[in-house]
Amino acid sequence: xxxxxxxxxxxxxxxxxxxxxxxxxxxxxxxxxxxxxxxxxxxxxxxxxxxxxxxxxxxxxxxxxxxxxxxxxxxxxxxxxxxxxxxxxxxxxxxxxxxxxxxxxxxxxxxxxxxxxxxxxxxxxxxxxxxxxxxxxxxxxxxxxxxxxxxxxxxxxxxxxxxxxxxxxxxxxxxxxxxxxxxxxxxxxxxxxxxxxxxxxxxxxxxxxxxxxxxxxxxxxxxxxxxxxxxxxxxxxxxxxxxxxxx
Length: 247
What we know:
By secondary structure, the chain is mainly beta. It has helices at 75-83, 94-109; strands at 7-13, 24-30, 36-44, 51-59, 64-72, 119-123, 135-139, 142-144, 147-148, 151-160, 177-184, 190-195, 207-217, 221-231, 236-239, 241-246.
């Protein structure tokens, strides 16, 4: 059952407490028509210590990536900046600024430069351990406590699965999962469902998803932020993910 009135954007974001690297995420916002959403993640790599960033744009129509830009600052360049005393010019992750610059034309063409984030409905940071990792309920808007939008429920289910061609080193980490995510209405009807396949290359080795944030744009678009873990150089890394679909 599909009702084309709520566009759901699912973000998977920086990882759990055992991560070798824990990144940061910025929800860049929606396009005005809700057709696209963008996410920017940035981190410092474990091992090399080099800054890195990735910007992802997803389509609500196809539940797929339409643009992705990843940028790493090489170790030699960081050493040059430090020797020149110029690293102080980058109080933020310098790779973040590079990715934004390289992606500016795409963001502008999709009307994603206005920072249209809507209303921040739910925020469960990693330090908040008193909430469920795999279920959250929310409404799309609230006028007064007695005048609210439709109630929706977000559920996560993890299906343990190791790819047949998995490298030997994967055995040092938790078994990967295929993610199933559903959004249901107050009657229990499924409005949106996403199920991973083995071909989802970027997240083939991901595990431990966790609900973190919900953003709502008007009464038609919702963005959900999830935590996840991926194998890293010195341990599991906290990373981000973006899924988009209409319900």
